[in-house]
Amino acid sequence: MSGGAIIMMIIAMLIVWGGLVLAIIQLRRHPDPGPEPDEMGIPTAE
Prior knowledge:
InterPro entries: MaAIMP_sms (IPR031596). The protein is mainly alpha-helical. The protein has a domain at about 1-30. Helix content is about 60%, strand content about 0%. It has one helix at about 5-30.
C-alpha cells in the first residue's frame, strides 16, 4: 500500500468516525424526545 493510499485511508477514517463521535455528542447534549404517544397511535392511560 502506498503512502498516499494510507493517508487517504486515515482521512476517510477520521471523517467517518469523527462524524459518528460528533453526532453522539450532539444527541447527548440535545436528546431527541421523539414523537408523542398519541402521534404514534398508542392510547394513553387517562
